[in-house]
Description:
By secondary structure, the chain is α+β, with helices and mostly antiparallel strands. The protein has helices spanning 33-45, 49-59, 65-81, 86-99, 104-116, 120-133, 137-152; strands at 2-4, 29-31, 155-163, 178-181, 184-187, 201-213, 216-221. Helix 1 (33-45) runs antiparallel to helix 2, helix 4 (86-99) packs antiparallel against helix 5 and helix 6 (120-133) runs antiparallel to helix 7. Mean pLDDT is 70; it is low at 1-6, 8-17, 162-202 and 214-222. This is Tetratricopeptide repeat protein.
Amino acid sequence: MIGVLAVMTLAGDVAPKSKQERVPTDVPMRLSAAQVFTLADAARAGGDFAAAETAYRALQSDPDLEIRTEARFRLGMMLADDLRRYSDAAIEFRHILDDQPKAARVRLELARVLALMGHLGSAEREFRAAEAAGLPPEVERMVRFFANALNARKTFGGSVEVALAPDSNINRATRSDTLGTVIGDFTLDKNAKAKSGIGLELRGQAYWRNRLEHDADLLVRG
């Protein structure tokens, strides 16, 4: 359990409505980790990123390592994708890797934000480390392509999208009707189940321009 002292204004959404059941405002609310995750995710979806960040950071004090890890991961994704705070996102991903160095999904996300920051050498090293840790064949080929392009230091551009479908749980995919996460079991529809045992997906478009002669380039897109 995590004690949250009105972690954010969204706490009011789960408060009792009747006068008899209303909790006095001076009484701290103690929420479970699952409840705080729900509030944080709702705040992020609603664009209240400050409230979401407060809740995710509160979860980082939980004694359970997996809950702390999940909170850091969701915070890192929000910082990168919603707020473009790539440096802060990289810090969260590095904290996770300190505890779980074989978390390939996290390492790929770290490589992505490093590339977006222009730190191509560091991004290439993280891609290599993720590849060495073991990836599904389809993902490994894409990762190797981007790592080679970064290492070549040639004119390079494009976009990389890394996704673990269907859920944000960084530790496992699922083929069952329910998803067991660090905060409880959830029922999945058909589209939310892992396909062919591959939970890690990397999509992207990139170009790699190589000088052939003074007036001719070779342009490869993928």
